[in-house]
Amino acid sequence: MDRAVQLSKLIRYAKNPLLLFWRLGLDGHFKFIPDRRYLEICFRIKVGHRLNLEAPQTFNEKLQWLKLFDRRPEYTRLADKLAVRDYIQSRVGADHLIPLLGTWGSAADINFSTLPSQFVLKCTHDSGSVIICRDKSNLRENRVRARLANRLSKNYYWAGREWPYRNIPPRVIAEAYMTDESATELKDYKFHCFNGEPRVIQVDFDRFTAHRRNLYDLNWNRLPLALAYPDAPERVIPKPPNLEQALDLVRAIVPPAPTVRVDLYLTQDQIYFGEFTFFHEGGLGRFKPARYDAEFGSWIHLPPPSGHRSASA
Known about the structure:
alpha+beta
């Protein structure tokens, strides 16, 4: 590995020790640590205080509780980036699915010759493995295969003990490349839902330069808070003309869960489903001001525990 890359990683780990802890967890070094204890350690490192699982109050505390005690089998299908397509099609049809270009069980099987000049690759069983190809003629295929092969060999569950990922079959899918009105990226519109109803809309932008994030209420009033990434009060993001249609789509597809984030892509011509996320920022996203952690948490109504036995595994 290049020394500059090694130094960059060391600096990142020094600034955020949780990244190193998660990396070691993802590599399987901490399988001996029970889920509850592992989450308590992560919470202490990132949030800075003890995790309250006996009487959780905040958004982040309740997400950790849900990891341990709300382990409904259907969450696995909904977190699987390939299997979830059947769920979406059964609810609203295929028009809201990004076109699928290919599916492979291993990185070695990817047939780049069948793919167009622009496309997106991602693993179905994890988070953060997306590879965006804007010009296939410049693609370093061997490097892409190596990166995806590495991700396919990992069980993402071990990084943050997010139970839905544990039993997802590892595969690679290719989807059509798309952009929004900027013609340079495809902004994420993330709808934070509580008990089946959207309450907050998150917009991520400049993800590959200086990642920032604004949050809005359903009337498109910007909320004065930052969540995990800096907000940009000076950045005026117009209310999408198809916002009401997007909200209708969210309500039509949101699964019955105490809280889930529904990610959509809003283009000029269509609204596309992105993914479901049950544990936003792994339940470790810092709120500024901190009072919003408690406010978001008040919207989550915890179900009766369903995962006592596996929570200690």
